Amino acid sequence: MKKVLVFVFLNLVSFLFIQSVSFGANPQPVKGGRLPVINLPIPKNPDEKMYLGLSGDGFFKIQQIKANAVLIKIFNLYCPACQSTASAMAELYHQIQNHPDLKEQMKLIGIGAGNSLYEVEVFKQTHHIPFPIFPDEDYRIHRVLGEVRTPFFIATKMNRDGSQEIVHTHLGALTQVEAFMDLMREAYGIHEEELRKRENLATSTGDESSSPDELKFRVR
Q1: Which domains does the chain show, CATH number per domain?
Q2: DSSP string covering 129-184, please?
Q3: pTM for the full model?
Q4: ∠166-122-94 over CA atoms, to 5°?
Q5: Which of 58, 74, 176, 185 has the most CB atoms within 10 Å of its CB?
Q6: How far apart are alpha carbons 45 and 130 in whole angstroms?
Q7: pLDDT tens digit string along 10-47?
């Protein structure tokens, strides 16, 4: 009987401890919420710096990226599902960059939860990642984001007050480029027919430029 009471007591203490820890934990990102302020190192690579619309050295906030929309991938080098989504993310980057109405408005970044700078570089080189990815070796950013499982995708859009509104989150692998594009269209209310009309118009006129006001991101 004493053994049973001790077992129950220990389990109760463990439960209360877990609850107390969870109570103080940060909430996970959800649609309609605001992206927490996250500081990342400004890339040393000039192409990556230009891609994000940054200058100088030091740190930047995700809200400072020059884009109306940012898709963030939280990954880990040793996560099989993160590895399986890498090629699709790379192809998504190229599709966006090749689209005159999207390339200046939508940017991609990755954050390696628990990964050092070396491990992030290994992931980048192994999977030919063309967009900037950043280390989070001490899990500091991961904790701010509610310790989400990986891979975890966060789609945000810029509000007029400069904040980043979360318009979509997704946990788990997406290995098809079209699945990513569907996610983007749903999250931002982008109509494919409208994009094709603009692309055809740009091709026929020879005008590859795109104004940020030409395509509005409509959140459903």
Answers
A1: 38-205 (3.40.30.10)
A2: --S-EEEETTSHHHHHTT---SSEEEEEEE-TTS-EEEEEEEES----HHHHHHHH
A3: 0.77
A4: 50
A5: 74
A6: 11
A7: 443 433 333 333 344 688 999 999 999 999 999 999 99
